[in-house]
Amino acid sequence: MSYRYHPYDEPLQGRAAVVDSWLGEGEHKGASTRDEPGTYDATFETIAVEGNTAVAIGTTIYIKQLGPKPTRTFDNCFIIRFDSAGRCREFTEWYMEQPAAKSDE
Known about the structure:
Elements: E1 2-4, E2 12-13, H1 15-22, E3 40-50, E4 53-63, E5 70-82, E6 88-97
Parallel strand pairs: 1-6
Antiparallel strand pairs: 1-2, 3-4, 4-5, 5-6
C-alpha cells in the first residue's frame, strides 16, 4: 500500500508505515498532527468509481474550542485505488483551505 498526504509527496510505503504516521509515531515530511476528538467535523461522499479507482470528496471543519464558528474549513478530494481483492493499494489526498469568511462585524 502507498499513501500520500499531498499529491506531490513521496508516498509512505506499507501498512505499518501508514498506521505509524497516522498515529504520530512515524516520521513523514508531509504528515500533519493527529486531530483531537471533538475538534473537527467532516463529511465525505463517493462521486466516481471506475474499475478499481474511486474518487471521494468532502469537507472538514475544524471547530474553535470557545465558540460556534469554524476556525478553518477544508475541501478534500481523495483518489483511491484498490487491488483485485478490494483492499486499498494507493491513497492520495488533495485538499485546500477555504478562504476565511468575511464578517459584517
